[in-house]
Amino acid sequence: xxxxxxMRKVKSKSWKKxxxxxxxxxxxxxxxxxxxxxxxxxxxxxxxxxxxxEGHQSEVLQSLAEEFPPERCFTIVFxxxxxxxxxxxxxxxxxxxxxxxxxxLIEPRSFPLTSALVSRTWIRDWFQKADKxxxxxxNFKEVQRLLKMMNVDMNEDHALRLFQAADKSESGxxxxxxxxxxxxxxxxxxEVLSLxxxxxxxxxxxxLLELVDFLRQEQLEDEGTEELxxxxxxxxxxxxxxxxxxALSADGFLxxxxxxxxSIFNPRHRAxxxxxxxxxxxxxxxSSHNTYLIEDQIRGQSSIEGYIRALKRGCRCLEVDCWDGxxxxxxxxxxxxxxxxxxxxxxxxxxxxxxxxxxxxxxxLSLENHCSMEQQEVLAQQLKTILGEQLLTTTTDGRxxxxxxxxxxxxHKILLKGKKIGRLxxxxxxxxxxxxxxxxxxxxxxxxxxxxxxxxxxTVHPSRGSYYGPALQxxxxxxxxxxxxxxxxxxxxxxxxxxxxxSHSRPSEISSLSEAKARKLIRDAGNExxxxxAWQLTxxxxxxxxxxxxxxxxxxxWNVGCQIVALNFQTAGTEMDxxxxxxxxxxxxxxxxxxxxxxxxxxxxxPNDPSSREGPxxxxxxxxxxxxxxxxxxxxxxxxxxxxPLVRVEIHGVPADQARQETKYIENNGFNPRWDxxxxxxxxxxxxxxxxxxxxxxxxxxxxxxxxxxxxAFANIKPGYRHIHLLSKDGTSIPPSxxxxxxxxxx
Length: 747
Fold this sequence. Notes:
Elements: E1 5-10, E2 16-23, E3 29-34, E4 40-45, E5 49-54, H1 59-63, E6 73-78, E7 85-88, H2 92-106, H3 116-130, H4 140-149, H5 156-166, H6 177-186, H7 190-199, E8 205-206, H8 208-217, H9 225-236, H10 240-244, E9 248-249, H11 250-257, E10 283-288, H12 304-312, E11 317-323, E12 331-332, E13 342-343, H13 344-354, E14 363-369, H14 373-387, E15 414-418, H15 445-455, H16 470-478, H17 481-484, E16 487-492, H18 498-504, E17 509-514, H19 515-532, E18 537-541, H20 555-558, E19 564-567, H21 574-583, E20 591-593, E21 619-629, E22 645-652, E23 659-662, E24 674-683, E25 690-697, E26 705-713, E27 720-727, E28 733-746
Helix pairs in contact: 3-4, 5-6, 8-9, 9-11, 12-13, 13-14, 15-18
């Protein structure tokens, strides 16, 4: 890799250019140059690479499958919305060299300050950037340039003192270990050292008992604290001598605070931690709108990459718009627009390959069917032959159940959401007794019980008898039976009101509502909406006016228990931050269990009236924003520009809890700003609250610039002294940028 390799860079079937690729000596940068001109075309950092895919795993490489074998092909996938890089090596051996080499380089990147090895990688990276003349040494002028690059506006005399203290050889330059000393002096964390000394009797170490005191008093760790303390010492103490004495040094203490165990996000909630045996309608489900689009809704590109990215993010409900295509092949695109087209076959193949790589739990494929009867038959045939056993084609036990099955029961299954001829019970054994007749002027508990039995998939109500007349005939004329048979638990039906649904609908049916219709229902009938979502699925989709693929706030839809809140995953912003914040828990499986008061069909909860929530009263969330570390520069900022950072904390939840507060801004310091400000919030329904931390570059003449953010569900917050590891606008990590905060939760 470091000697360089000649490979084909591919953009389309006809655009294949030979380029010379080389990994630079820093093992952090790859550049490529034209074979013909020798000009360097582009470069990218290893930190930009999310993953490497082998073989024909892109549309472009699939189109070249007959020309080039899969062993020579691979795709470099970047974080965010940067386009993939498709490459064809000269041999299978060269391809493997790059694939395996890149995978090794991108593997150890999370929480960079938790390992000495990775910390040294970061130090070396800064040294490479600052060593302008590449002589392996750094003079004071280069140090000043380094400080600007690191977002530090430091007094020149102070910078010179740090430089001279590190220059042990008195050569006027820094090299090797001297630069490490300079870097450590630069990154000294006074606020962490002060906290360390508060609990350390000698100021040099924390004994096992002192560490236990800190974990109990400040971090509120109340179970197995001694075992946890021993584990942290073994894991994060760099000194073998200190480890042998069961002590934690200041360096080890900092490494613990910067680790996953010291994160604001409860590490136990990163893994699967919720009950997965409840009905599907009891979960919020990560959902995408027009998944095939990776740009806008009018002229944007349709790509299988949209499905791959969504599935890798844990998305469990995907959308596909199908239209008649040439040669009897259905195509996927946004109808009546100029978006490009992809074969339905490719979408299904991609779904089969990637559906369960991130999560074992069911995927719902929301089918918008605009095809003729002939091509509907093709849709059904391709779904069945390509997906095979993955496609759910009958109920879990072959009988009509009285409620939706659970994610656990539907593991590794793909459910089709779409129109269906007749009802599910027409083709399956019934649940048992026939539901009695229910008259229009009924009242009393007995009648309510009869209604409930009807709702739970009993015999068709007499008032719906006409359903089996003209309506059924119309369905048979417009929908292929083979495609209809693929729809089991997610039959699409029109929404005609909550009472109508309660009397005439089934748990196996699902309604789709526009964001505007949903908002009106939330405003006019909040409690009924919550009750409805306790037994049936509801899907919300963006307004057709959002041609730029912008998003609505998912929070107000989650507040009434809507499960499938479809967002444009390709568009970064607050809305997708909230989505990622909610679904980053529970093993990123794409399912989050709703609060208990939203799973009860008799609930009194209404998000517009927080006092309707059962349980204890409001809680107070107190956040002390202490400091920031190595905040990134604003994109496209001028050379030498240094940010003036401020922190805003936003509460997203029920209307009574919506709030935001921010710190003052710190002038010219993006490297280690100190705020030491306390913000306080009252939460009436903490179970639905998401907390978004945003760092911005203050600008008194125009809108502040985004620097980084992190969003976490209140249920996943760990109290105490915690680091918040910031994410970019695209939701990708930007190590080692972080905030240091102190969290308190009181009733």
